[in-house]
Every structure is written in C-alpha cells, then in structure tokens.
Amino acid sequence: MTQASPPAGGPRPEDRINYAEVLPQETKILILIGTLLGLFLAALDQTIVATSLPRIVADLNGINLYAWVTTAYLLASTAMVPIYGKLSDIYGRKPILMFGIVVFLIGSALCGMAGEPWFGNLFGGGMMQLIVFRGLQGLGAAALTSVAFAIIADIFAPAERGKYQGLFGAVFGLSSVIGPLLGGFLTDNISWRWVFYVNLPIGLIALAFIFSKMPILASGLKPKIDYVGAVLVITFSVPLLLALTLGAEVDYGWTSPTVLALFAGAIVSLIAFLFVESRHESPILPLSLFKNPTFAWGVLARFFVGAAFLGAILFLSLYLVNVQGVSATKAGTATIPLTMGLIVGSVLSGQLASRLGYYKNLILIGLAFMIGGFYLLSTLNADTAYSTVIVYMVILGLGIGPALPLFNLAIQNAVQRWEIGVATSAGQFFQQMGSTIGTAVFGAVLTSTLATQVPEQFRAAEAGQPPAVVAQLEATAKQAADAGGSRGGGTAPTFDSVQSQITAGFAKTFGSVETAVQGGNLSVLTQDQSLPAGLRSGLANIPPAALQSEQGKAGVLAQIKSQLDTAQTEAITSAKKVFDLSGRAVKVAFANTISRIYLISIFVALLALLSVLPMPNLRLPRKGEGQGGPKGEEGGEKRSGLASMEG
Questions:
Q1: Backbone angles phi, psi at 391, to 5 degrees
Q2: What angle is formed at CA 140 by the lines to CA 349 and CA 184, rounded to 5 degrees?
Q3: Rounded CA separation 536/557 (Å)
Q4: pLDDT beyond 80 at 170
Q5: CA–CA separation, 163 vs 464, rounded Å?
Q6: Where the protein is mainly located, per its record (predicted)?
Q7: Is residue 213 within 8 Å of 39, Cβ to Cβ?
Q8: 323, 428, 452, 588: which is deepest, by most CB within 10 A?
Q9: Could you give the CA distance from residue 319 to residue 322 in angstroms, rounded to a whole number?
Q10: What is the Cα gyration radius of the chain?
C-alpha cells in the first residue's frame, strides 16, 4: 500500500509541532475541559430542546412547523461537518473551534429571542425565526462535533487517546440524561427561552479555556482550498436529508415530485463531488482515504452504527410511552438505564484500548453486545416487565458505548497527521447520515406496520364480544388508525376521565328529563334518540294525569332516575370493557411493531460488525513512537500491513 502524500504548499508535515510531546499534562487537561464543554453544548442542545418543543409551539403558534425545529439543526450541522474538518486541518483546530462556539452562541441567543416584538415579522413570524436561528445553531455545532474529536488526536499520543475518547462518548450519554430534565425544569419554572440562553454561560467558559490555553493545533500545510468541493458537499447532503425527511411525511411521500427531484439533485451533486475531489490537490474529502482499509471499513461501520443507534433511542421511547405507560415528558429520562450502559461501555472500552494497545477486538465485543441487546429488545411484547426492559437497555448501552470512542481512535490511528481532521469529521458525517437514513427507514417501517397491526389487533379484540361492544371497538379502531395508533405519544386517557364523561352525560340527560317532567311535556323526550330505547317507551306510557301533582311528578322522576342509573351502570361497564380491550389492542400493536423494528436493527448492527472484520488490527503507538512523518515514524497506511500481522 502506498504512503499518503501531503497536500502541496507550505512547510513540510514533519515541521509541524508534535503537541502530544511538547505540551505539559496540565495544559492538555485544560484544553480537554474546554473541548468537552464545547462538545457538551452541541450534545445537550439536541436533547434539551425536545421537552420544551410543545410549549414553544404553543407560544409561537407553529404546530405545522414542529418537526422543522429539529430538521433545520440537523441539515446545517450534518452538511458542514466535513468542511469544518478540512478547514481545521488547514487553519488549525483552535480558530475553527472558537468560530463554531461563537456561531453556536449567537444562534442560541437568537433562538431564545425568537418571536419577540422587536423581530417583528422577520422570516414570516416567530416559528420561522426559530427555525432559521436553529439552522444557525447547527452551523456552529458542526464545528464542535467535528473538531473536538480531532483535538484528542493532536494533544495525546495514540496509546493515550482511548481513555480520553471514552470521555467524549460519555458526554453524549450524559447530555441525554441532563437534557430532558433541565429542559423540563427551565420550561416549567422559568421560560422555554432559557433552554437556549443556558448555553451562553457554558459556551463562554469553554471559550475562555480554549482561548487562553489551547495552541493553534495547525497542520502547518497551506494548500489551496477546495471551494467547489465544499459547495458540492452542501448541495449533496442537504437535498438528500430533505428528501429523507419529507419522504416520511404524509403530505409528501416517497413518490412525491418534490422528493424525487431532491433525490435526483443529490445524486447529480454526488457524482460531481466525486469528479471534483478526484482532481483537486487538497480535496474536502480525499478519496485516497478510502484506499486505507481502516478508514474505509471504519466509516462504513459508523454509518450502520449511526442508523442503529438513533433508531434504538427513538423507538425505545415510543415503546415506553405507548406500551409501558410512561408519560411523554418522562420518555427521555426513561432511557437513563440505556444511557448509563452507554457511558460505562464508552469509558471502559477507552481505558481498555489504552492499556491493551489494540481496539479491534473491543469494537467487535461491543457490536456483539449491541446485536444481543437488539435481539433482546426484539422479544418485547405488551406484557414485558419494566424491570426486564431496563436490563435490555443496559445491555444495549454497553454495546453502543464502545462504538463512540473506538471508531474515532481507529480512524485517527490509521491516517497521517495532516489528515486527522478530515478523517475524523468524515467518520462523524457518515454516522450522522446513517442516523438520518435509519430514522427515515425505521419511520416507514413503523407507519406501514402499525397500519396493519392496529386493525388486526382490534379484530382479535372483537372476537366473542356482544354487538354493542364490537360497534364501539370498531369506532375506536378507526380513531386509532386515523391518529396513526397514537404514534406521537402524549398522555393516554385514563378510564376515570372516560367514566367522568359518561356520568356527566347522564347527569345532563336527567336534567333535561327533570325539566320536561316539571313542565308536564314528555313528548319532547319520547322523540329524543339519545335516550335509551326502554326509557323512551316507558315515558310514552306515562299517563298525563301522573304529571298533574307534585307527588306524581316525583314518582315519575324517581322511576326515570332508576332507569337512568341502571343504563349508566351498563354504559360504564361496557365502556370499561371497550377501554380495556382497545388499550390492550393498541399496546399489542405497538409492541409488535417496535419488536419488528428491532429485528431489522439486528441486521443493521450485524452489517456494522461485518464491516469491522476486514479492518486491520493496528497497534496503538506508545508515547514517543509518533504517527506519520519521517525519522522512522511510519504512517498509518504503511503500518497497516505489519500491524495486521502483529494483531
């Protein structure tokens, strides 16, 4: 395999400072703290906003744009990841990271002010303002997620990176616990605007650490910038992500001309991107990286891990809400067991990789745990105990955890120093694309499977029931089908609320009867089809003379009250049966649907594992051995043959 050549222009790569050797440990730790805080900002923002969205939508009157608050952030952050990675290789990690934090904080401040009077009708109103400002946030967040992982490779020797990469994986897990709790607290007790304002003090602290303690961390190379490639990355990824988002929506669908046009535009841009990148001296994404087996198989595995990971989080929450009965506001924190497993797996695998000097077997073990976790989750049903679900979540978290730090470690160890930024960001880009595509595919599976499962389970519930119950079940089944099986979650109605409605209805009926009896005119009631048939026929047989005295009216009212009480008891009994049967039908439908999604997730995780098998088992160089460059320091690609024999 040929050695990778540095981009033309500027100093030689061997002239670059080896920061892992020259920086004191105290400075490295301060840099690490600032970088972790910056990454925590981006990770927290993806979870803290979710719990406040219902309140935001209510205040800004934008339910029809609900999903775009997240979509705008995703589009901007995903498209910019590879661009920031390349720029950080050219200009250094510090200026790109600081730029990303500043843009992110400006976007956060503007998001918090969306809908305020001084913005007027800018962008068409408060909700559109929020969406635009969320896109600005995403532009900044892309720098945080792409550059942060590369900084570890700059300031720590390969053998030390594992234990610190594990901390980065733990940040994502920690944010998924803190985010929903903090978002709910701020929204309920202060204002949803503070969900965005809370980023400001954290970001300013991160900026202070980075500005005062971090060196520039530049490659020393000054190649020409691939402007065309940068534009083509955006014109490829944004239309693709839009097509995947819109294709899953009812208003569009996969055969919509808009969606098909977006897919076509993405394909044209991809072809043009490959053509341009193969000819530019310093491309945004060097195609030569794909000749490196560790990089090529590593980013492919991350694509599949991204698809499986996000699907696990999204659809596990859906199961907890619709089957286990967890409230929608607690759905995020209900996945804490999975998060704890993820944090433990991430930190432990990083420590082991640093001690053992190899990472491939740890990745394979983690993916095996992931497959096992998905298999266990595929056995979920409507009667699975919550304690059992917790065990399954922990196992899955232990499997997903190692994938977060170790794939970065593998890719960074296999490439040249001047390629670390672009290689790291490329891995992040593939993972985010996998998450988006996986969400679209799993969403389509959810919709199609529920469409058959809900009617099927209601038909099973109708078997052997009296006609009145069957009629009510059919009406409930239609409502569930129209609402997508309550797929959006929310708080399910309790039987107490149903019983209260029935009781209130009968009380209103008795009030109407009492008015008619006191007025001596029962003909109106005998024609009222909302009254029970037996009551109407009984009213028709009451002689007019019975209503001539107060005693007679009291007797008639007592008789009617007795009949209404009997009818009310029968209605409540029937409603309880319908409530239990329909609730059970929806739970079974959801449990069967989610278990089917996890069956597919097993296959996706298996593809990730199979992608890892061909990866060389490179040894992590010890401190002082270097990575790439002259003087006996062998580059990542050159090492791969020897290291694979060693492994």
A1: -60, -45
A2: 75
A3: 13
A4: no
A5: 61
A6: membrane
A7: no
A8: 428
A9: 5
A10: 31
| Residues whose CB is less than 8 angstroms from the CB of residue 32 and which lie 6 or more positions away in sequence, other chains included | 152, 155, 164, 167
Contacts of 114 (CB under 8 A, 6+ apart): 60, 126, 127, 129, 130, 133
For 48, residues 6+ apart whose C-beta sits below 8 A from its C-beta are 175, 178, 179, 180, 182, 183, 186, 195, 198
Q: Give residue 639's pLDDT band: very low, low, confident or very high (50, 70, 90).
A: very low
Contact of 104 with 141, CB cutoff 8 Å: yes
CA distance 274 to 241: 19
Structure tokens of 276?
């341009």
Q: Are 155 and 31 in contact (CB under 8 A)?
A: yes
Kindly give, in sequence order, each residue whose CB lies less than 8 Å from that of residue 232, ignoring residues fewer than 6 positions away.
Answer: 269, 272, 273, 276
Q: In the predicted model, is pLDDT for residue 104 greater than 70?
A: yes
According to CATH, the topology of domain 15-226+280-284 is Growth Hormone; Chain: A; (1.20.1250)
Contact 41, 202 (CB under 8 A): yes
N-terminal to C-terminal alpha carbon distance within the chain: 18
Report the amino acid identity of residue 95.
P
Task: Identify whether the C-beta of residue 314 lies closer than 8 Å to the C-beta of residue 67.
Answer: no
Which of the residue ranges 22-31, 239-248, 518-527 would you say has the lowest mean pLDDT? 518-527
- In the numeric block, the tokens 């028709």 are attached to 540
Q: Whose structure tokens read 């990778």?
A: 4
Burial class (CB in 10 A: 0-12, 13-18, 19+), 512: middle
32-64 confidence digits (pLDDT tens): 888 888 888 888 877 777 777 777 877 887 666
Q: Which of 72, 53, 280 is nearest to 186 (CA)?
A: 53
Token pair, residue 456, equals 């099927």
Instruction: Name the least confident of 6-10, 377-381, 477-481, 588-592.
Output: 6-10
Cβ partners under 8 Å of residue 213, min gap 6: 27, 30, 31, 34
Among all chains, which residue has been given the structure tokens 């920690």?
174
Q: Is the dihedral of CA 79, 81, 85, 87 positive or negative?
A: positive
* Residue 528 burial by Cβ neighbours in a 10 Å radius (0-12, 13-18, 19+): middle
Q: Does residue 628 have a pLDDT over 50?
A: no
The pLDDT tens digits of the residues spanning 196-221 come to 998 898 888 888 888 887 777 766 66
- Residues 6 or more apart whose CB falls under 8 angstroms from that of 519 comprise none
Query: For residue 195, is pLDDT > 80?
Result: yes
Q: Residue 215: which of 6, 416, 22 has the closest Cα?
A: 22
Contacts of 388 (CB under 8 A, 6+ apart): none
How many alpha carbons lie under 13 Å from residue 479 in its C-beta half-sphere?
A: 10
Torsion of CA 211, 216, 222, 223, to 10 degrees: -80
Structure token pair of residue 85: 């990675």
Residue of 459, 447, 444 whose CA lies nearest to 485: 447
Which helix (H) or strand (E) element contains residue 505? helix 495-519
CB atoms under 10 Å from CB of 460, counted, come to 13
